[in-house]
Specification:
Shape: globular
Structural class: mainly beta
Number of helices: 2
Distance between the termini: 29 Å
Strand order of the largest sheet: 1-2-10-7-12-5
CATH class: Mainly Beta
Strand content: 35-45%
Helix content: under 10%
Number of strands: 13
CATH architecture: Sandwich
Length: 184
């Protein structure tokens, strides 16, 4: 696998080696040994999958310590814009984001270490999204930031009138409203 650094330390894009022939393709989507050597020694404990339609924006979600989560995300079918926001208060990149297009065609993955808020926007008619987490989901420890917080400057690549949000995601506060309560 090829590991590509981003502007946020610890957030990396992973490109697998793809073997193609007349039958189709094959690639190793995850190897614990290679991940530990090239990215970080992380033990994933939970896999999740979602399917969404064009315009759906999910996020920006995070889990507070002690239930914070690192994530390894990828798209099986369709295309999404995947976004990681650094919410580690002492980080030189606090409040900055990385946005990466993930698709069933490019087979890219994005790794987000603990201390990132995460979200994605569906750019194709539908998308099937999978992610691994290194900690179990805990409703009592969940947090979120408004997807459209202007201080973050995220271009979700979807017209605002086409964005589809859950009722919960439509009510999240801006980063500045929760900054002093972040435990990262």
């Amino acid at each position: 696998m090829n590991v590509i650094s981003t502007d946020i330390p610890g957030v990396v894009v992973i490109e697998p080696r793809i073997f193609r022939d007349e039958r189709g393709y094959f690639f190793e989507s995850y190897s614990q040994r290679e991940f530990d050597e090239k990215v970080a020694p992380v033990k994933f404990v939970q896999d999740n999958e979602s399917r969404s339609s064009y315009g759906v924006v999910r996020g920006l979600h995070f889990q507070r310590p002690p239930m914070a989560q690192s994530k390894l995300v990828r798209v099986i079918e369709g295309t999404v814009l995947d976004v990681a926001v650094d919410i580690r208060r002492d980080s030189p990149t606090f409040g900055r984001h990385v946005a990466v297009e993930l698709s069933g065609e490019n087979h890219r993955q994005l790794f987000l270490p603990r201390g990132m808020a995460h979200g994605f926007a569906v750019l194709s008619p539908t998308a099937t999204f999978q992610y691994k987490c290194d900690n179990f989901y805990s409703p009592a420890d969940e947090g979120a930031i408004a997807w459209d917080d202007p201080t973050l400057g995220i271009d979700w690549r979807i017209p605002a009138d086409k964005v589809i949000l859950s009722a919960k995601d439509a009510r999240h506060p801006r980063l500045e409203a929760i900054e002093s309560n972040l435990l990262f």
